[in-house]
Amino acid sequence: MSCLPGTLNRCDGATFRQVHSSHRAAIVRVIAGYTAALVTGTTLLMTPAATVADGGISLLKALFTATSALSVTGLVVLDTGQDFTLFGQIVIVCLVQAGGLGVLLLTALLTALLALLLAGKAGLRLRQSVASETKSDAIGGVKPLVLRITALTVGTELVVASVLFCRFFFHYDEPVTAALWDAIFHAISAFNNAGFGLRQDNLVDYVADPFICGPIGLAVILGGLGYPVLIELVRRYRTPLKWGLTTRIIVVLTPVLLIGGTVFIAAIEWNNAATMGHFDVWGKVQAAALQSTITRTAGFNSIDISQMHTATWFGMDFLMFIVGGPAGTAGGVKITTMAVLAATTWTEVSGGRSVTLFGRRICRYVHRQATTVIVLALGWVLLATMVILLCDPRFGLSRVLFEVISVFGTVGLSTGITADLSAPSQIVLILTMALGRLGPVTVASGLALRERPIRYELPKERPLIG
Questions:
Q1: pLDDT in tens, 113-123
Q2: CA-to-CA distance for 144 and 153, rounded, in angstroms?
Q3: Cβ contacts of residue 183 below 8 Å, gap of 6+?
Q4: How far is CA 258 from CA 5, 48, 236, 261, 320, in A?
Q5: What residue ranges are annotated as transmembrane (predicted)?
Q6: 454 in a domain, yes or no?
Q7: Average pLDDT over residues 46-69
Q8: DSSP category for residue 362
Q9: What is the pLDDT of residues 196-209, one digit of tens each?
Q10: Is residue 102 over pLDDT 80?
């Protein structure tokens, strides 16, 4: 498989300028669309019709809620089920759907646009390479790609909503309209990895109910796999040897993270009476499994996060920083990025000549991409954590770090300090949510077109490392 930037270097200057200009314009449209949706959502949530409070809510609370919904984070400063009216809840769930589905579509459009522009000047070999990279049937197949993503999203949400409705209506005896709205809201929130819930204690009341936690957890996993992986699994589920490298990485490492997270959380919290110590064995396993799943960027909680051991928070920080697969509803730096970084480290330690994963050699520019994304992410997390500690030192490092990584990964879990943070700290979280949602897409796609035709090279020299 050829490396895209290396191929770009063989294109003429006019082609590169055209691709770079169109790509930059597409990024601007993504940010402009996100901003427009954010302003609209904030305005609607500020209206008296959106909340039960007289005169509506403040600009900061509306902006925080709208950003959390649009970035599919799920972190809240107000109770979604108690403080917002039906109209307000509809606005929130529409923002969640726009944030999850919108970023998916825009990501697909960016990659398809890149393929289309390159195909106009490059040869058949490059067309086939780009089509393989974007997992599309044809270079110009933007419309089918968008339709597949939309159908996959809506179809999954309908199935999950149907299961939840039957449970809410037949088992919990909710009225038809209440059961239907609960089912639709939680299904959309789950697949888009948002984590918004209509209960004051989220999913705590359903911690031992597999017919509620099961469909929600499954929707979270599916949404976090990423569209390219899902579509390839549907098409080639009988021929795993033909799976692309991205699909292999996600399919192998996702269960490792889920099972590893479950064992880790259960081991530490097993006898914690404030979290899962009072459950039976099955209840503890189920609670730990759901909470491990939720760290993939969903934000639901079936146990009290604020009562967890500090060591559990630290382990969940790691899981929330990685989260799910690329081109999906998950945030964070993505599993593939960490896999490439780990493979690069192992190659260096073991003295290997090239970085390989699952029988494939990783292009050198991908090493730089992964390193850049990780460094930028860590830099922002550290900066945001320091600023919040300066503004609200009473909450301590463990809670603040958990909060920052949670919003950067668009997870939405909290130790219970969100609503009590000062205005400057909440503004930092708002910026972190937006960066966590848009950053990985814009940075990674931007890096893919950063290379220029090489005109000269500087002399090499090796500084001392370590």
A1: 555 554 444 44
A2: 14
A3: 160, 161, 162, 163, 164, 165, 168
A4: 34, 42, 23, 5, 12
A5: 26-47, 59-78, 90-119, 145-170, 176-194, 206-229, 249-268, 370-390, 396-415, 427-449
A6: no
A7: 93
A8: P
A9: 999 888 888 898 89
A10: no
Q: Give mean pLDDT, residues 310-333.
A: 88
Q: Is residue 466 part of a domain?
A: no
Tokens of 270: 């097993």
Q: Residue 139 — pLDDT band, cuts 50, 70, 90? A: very low
- Of 62-71, 98-107, 186-195, give the lowest mean pLDDT range: 98-107
3-state class (DSSP) for residue 169:
helix
**Is the separation of the CB atoms in 220 and 160 below 8 Å?**
no
Residue 385 has, within 13 A of its CA and on its CB side, a CA count of 19
Question: DSSP secondary structure string, 14-37?
Answer: HHHHHHHHHHHHHHHHHHHHHHHH
3-state secondary structure of 1: coil
List C-alpha distances in Å: 15 to 10, 95, 443: 10, 37, 21
- Return mean pLDDT, the chain: 83
8 Å CB contact between 250 and 225: yes
Instruction: Compute the distance between CA of residue 434 and CA of residue 200 in angstroms, rounded to an integer.
Output: 25
Whether 65 contacts 149, CB under 8 Å: no
**φ/ψ of residue 280, rounded to 5:** -75, 180
Q: What is the pLDDT of residue 351?
A: 85
DSSP string, 224-244: HH-HHHHHHHHHSTT-GGG--
357 forms beta bridges with 360
The greatest distance separating any two alpha carbons of the chain, rounded to the nearest whole angstrom, comes to 75
Q: For residue 329, what are the domain limits? A: 4-447
Instruction: Name every residue whose Cβ is closer than 8 Å to that of residue 104 and which is 6 or more positions away in sequence.
Output: 149, 153, 227, 327, 328, 329
Q: Is residue 25 part of a domain?
A: yes
The Cα 408–Cα 347 span in angstroms is 29
Out of 79-88, 111-120, 357-366, least confident range: 111-120
- Confirm if 190 and 220 have CB atoms less than 8 A apart: yes
The per-type count for the chain, helices as H runs and strands as E runs, is 17, 2
Query: For residue 137, what are the contacts with CB-CB under 8 A and spacing of at least 6?
Result: 131, 144
Q: What is the pLDDT of residue 70?
A: 92
User: pLDDT band for position 142 (50/70/90)?
Assistant: low
The CA distances from residue 170 to 5, 20, 173, 180, in Å, are 56, 56, 5, 12
Task: Name the domain count of the chain.
Answer: 1
The whole-number pLDDT of residue 298 equals 82
d(CA 120, CA 131): 13
Alpha carbon distance, N-terminus to C-terminus of the chain? 34
Measured distance CA(216)–CA(187) in Å, rounded? 7
Is residue 465, in this structure, part of any structural domain at all? no
